Each structure stands twice: as C-alpha cells, then as structure tokens.
C-alpha cells in the first residue's frame, strides 16, 4: 500500500486543459474522454504543491535568477541518485522549454533546407519543428517484429551517409513506442554521428517513467567521449508540470548551450518562472518516492490494459508493455480495420480521444497512442469503450 493516492479524483474543469478542452480541435468533438496529449490526470505531488503555495504566499514574482544553487543542486542530486551520473554546474543550463531548446539547437546547427534525421514512428512535434525551421525531414524507420521495435544500425548509418544529415533528433525513452535505448546502441549511434559530423540531440523528457526492472541510460554518460551532443529534458512530464514552462540542457558543448541562451535573449523569453524553480527544488529533492510509486501505478495501468486486450480484444488489438513512458502504443492491425475507421469509431461510438498513429508518422498506420497517465477507473472505462467501438465496427462491416 503506497502513501500516495493516485486514485484521487481531481476535476480539470475550468483549468483550460488542452487534454479536455482541446478535443474538438483535434478530434472534431467536445466532451470526449481524453487519453491523448502527454499530460496526466494525476495531481502533482503534495511536496511540490506545498512549496508552490508557500512561494505564492510570498506574493512577489519579479524577475528571477536561475544561476543559483537552487537550480544546480536539485538537478545534480536527482541525476546522481537516479541516473548514476555526477554532473557539474557548468554543464547544466536552463532553457524555456524542451522544444524551445530543440529548436534553438536546430537553428544553430543548420541552414534552411538542411537535412535532419528522426526515427519513425516519431514524436509528432519533431515533425512540426522541422517544418517550422524549414528543414528537410529524413526518416529512419524503426523495425517492428512481434510488437517489438528495434533499430537497424546499418540503416541508421546509411540514412545519415546518403542524406548529408546535419542533426539527428534522438528521443530517449522513445515517444511513441516507449523504447529505451541501451548504452551500446547509443554508443554506436553517437559514433556514427561523430564520424559523419552529425550533431546529436537527445530529448530525454520521458526519462523518469521507467518500468520496474528496466534501466534508463542517458547519452550524458558518454559526453566525455562524444562532445557534439546535448541532452534536453525537464519536469513537465515527470511531475505533470507542463504549463509551468521549464527545461534544462546538459552538455560539454557549452558553445551550443550559449546559442540557446542567445536565442532566448534575442526573443526576450529567457526569464525563468519563479514557480518552476520552486517546483524543481521540491520535485528533485523530495519527490523520488512519489515518482517510484507513480511508476508502479502506471505499470499496473499498463498491465491492466494488456490483460484486458488479451482477454477481451485479442481479435482486434495487441500490446507489448512499453519499457518506458506512460504511453501505450497499441497495435490494431489484427482487426483488419483502417486507421480512419478506428479513429471514427473511437470518437463516435466510444466517446474517446485517443491519438491515431498517423500523428506520429506510424509507418504501418495501425497503432493508436493511448495515454495511461490516468486514474485506474478512467482506464477501465476507456477499455470498455474501446471494446464497444470494435464491436460496433464488426457488427457494421
Ligand atoms: C518527446 C517530447 N519532447 C518534448 C515534449 C514537450 O516538451 P516541452 O513542453 O518542454 O516543450 C514532449 C511532450 O509531449 C515530448 O513527448
């Protein structure tokens, strides 16, 4: 029995949450039960809420410095305790958001029209960010065998060599598949990038959501050897703080980190949120046990979903429990229904907003990304609605 109650019901009504209020924009309908955008229906830990309340009671939220121990120390503590890595202040820099930092690195490493490589399926905003920066998207498809994704390293090398790639956008853990990259794989990838003068950007925002018995390995562990690389991460996912913009980078390449700061200064968006800094301290100093308990809860949600599929939906779907993230990447190819049919049935019959795989450039177009960062009861209801949707599709074939 955990001391944290992840089953607590908290309404998001009136909070303007994109998760709820944004379903019409993406799914064409209001009032859907949402399991799509990557935030959770689970409250930020009490230690963070209490720290924020105390800071709010101070009542003054003027311009704030991030270059202090209250920024560096919690980050160093968390990485030392949880990722087994001793960081140095000079290698850590604040950034406005993870995607801001990704965009800033792209701007500093490329000219319009240059090639940037991603693996597919991919995190959808990587597609947008390349378009917005007028960059050519080079796709390296992951291999899919019996529900498990893997990377063919020769394909990775060849795709880089043949396309004059300037930057590789790495996602670890990988959104949407939930894959964790091993030390050996990342060493090979870094080596290929180094040999071909490709800058390696590692988005590690999902790093804290790891299944029991799995291990996350950051490329930051390899920075002594591979310097043309940067890690970008934050607290938005781990502690459900996406609307308090805050991220940080880790790198030995301080020049590129300075480029990020320069862009923040040019665009006048570099003022750190005083509330985000308070949240950082509380989160990384006091919320490790909350994170562990949440990981257990998320794991149980995923097991529930897998069992439900195996017992009731095996004619339609299959799921391999992802190694990381709170995103279940469910394969519906067995059902024989198309992406459009499934998407429509989920919305019209199930009343569900679940992201279709096409958003993530799913090469097989036969997956949905189901966010399980929700209360068990919500997940149970969603599974019933998914079943209802497939039954409807079968009856109306
Ligand atoms: C892989 C990945 N990177 C970045 C982000 C967004 O980060 P931020 O809001 O800090 O820009 C997300 C959000 O879903 C994500 O999944």
UniProtKB/TrEMBL annotation:
Gene3D superfamilies given for it? Aspartate Aminotransferase, domain 1, Type I PLP-dependent aspartate aminotransferase-like (Major domain)
Q: Which cofactor does it need?
A: pyridoxal 5'-phosphate
- Keywords carried by this UniProt record: Lyase, Pyridoxal phosphate
Enzyme Commission number(s) from the entry: 4.4.1.13
Q: Which InterPro entries match?
A: Aminotransferase_I/II_large, Class-II_PLP-Dep_Aminotrans, PyrdxlP-dep_Trfase, PyrdxlP-dep_Trfase_major, PyrdxlP-dep_Trfase_small
What Gene Ontology molecular-function terms does this entry list? Answer: cysteine-S-conjugate beta-lyase activity; pyridoxal phosphate binding
Q: Which Pfam families match?
A: Aminotran_1_2
Superkingdom of source? Bacteria
Determine if Lyase is one of this entry's keywords: yes
UniProt KW Lyase keyword: yes
Q: Which residue range or ranges hold the Aminotransferase class I/classII large domain?
A: 44-386
What the record says about family reads: Belongs to the class-II pyridoxal-phosphate-dependent aminotransferase family. MalY/PatB cystathionine beta-lyase subfamily.
Q: What is this protein called?
A: cysteine-S-conjugate beta-lyase
Organism from which the protein derives:
Phocicoccus schoeneichii
- This protein's encoding gene: patB
């Amino acid at each position: 029995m955990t001391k944290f109650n992840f089953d607590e019901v908290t309404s998001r009504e009136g909070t303007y949450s994109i998760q709820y209020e944004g379903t019409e924009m993406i799914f064409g309908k209001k009032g859907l039960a949402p399991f799509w955008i990557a935030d959770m229906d689970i409250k930020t830990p009490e230690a963070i809420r209490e720290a924020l309340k105390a800071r709010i009671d101070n009542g003054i939220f003027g311009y704030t410095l991030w270059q202090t121990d209250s920024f560096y120390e919690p980050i160093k503590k968390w990485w030392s305790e949880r990722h087994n890595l001793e960081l140095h202040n000079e290698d850590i820099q604040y950034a406005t958001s993870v995607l801001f930092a990704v965009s800033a690195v792209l701007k500093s490493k490329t000219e319009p029209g240059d090639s940037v490589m991603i693996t597919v399926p991919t995190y959808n905003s990587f597609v947008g960010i390349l378009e917005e920066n007028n960059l050519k998207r080079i796709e390296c498809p992951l291999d899919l065998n019996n529900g498990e994704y893997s990377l063919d390293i020769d394909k990775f090398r060849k795709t880089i060599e043949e396309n004059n790639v300037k930057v590789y956008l790495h996602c670890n853990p990988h959104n949407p598949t939930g894959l964790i990259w091993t030390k050996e794989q990342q060493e090979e990838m870094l080596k290929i990038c180094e040999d071909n003068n490709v800058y390696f950007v590692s988005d590690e925002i999902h790093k804290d959501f790891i299944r029991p018995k799995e291990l996350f390995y950051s490329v930051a562990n390899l920075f002594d050897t591979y310097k043309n690389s940067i890690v970008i991460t934050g607290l938005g996912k781990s502690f459900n703080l996406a609307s308090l913009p805050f991220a940080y980078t880790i790198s030995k390449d301080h020049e590129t980190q300075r480029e990020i700061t320069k862009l923040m200064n040019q665009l006048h968006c570099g003022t750190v949120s005083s509330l985000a800094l308070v949240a950082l301290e509380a989160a990384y100093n006091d919320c490790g046990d909350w994170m562990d308990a949440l990981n257990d809860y998320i794991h149980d949600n995923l097991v529930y979903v897998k069992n439900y599929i195996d017992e009731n939906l095996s004619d339609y779907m299959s799921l391999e429990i992802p190694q990381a993230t709170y995103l279940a990447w469910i394969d519906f190819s067995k059902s024989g229904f198309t992406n459009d049919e499934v998407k429509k049935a989920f919305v019209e019959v199930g009343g569900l907003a679940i992201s279709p795989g096409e958003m993530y450039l799913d090469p097989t177009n036969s997956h949905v990304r189901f966010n399980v960062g929700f209360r068990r009861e919500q997940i149970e209801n969603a599974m019933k609605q998914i079943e209802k949707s497939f039954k409807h599709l079968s009856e109306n074939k």
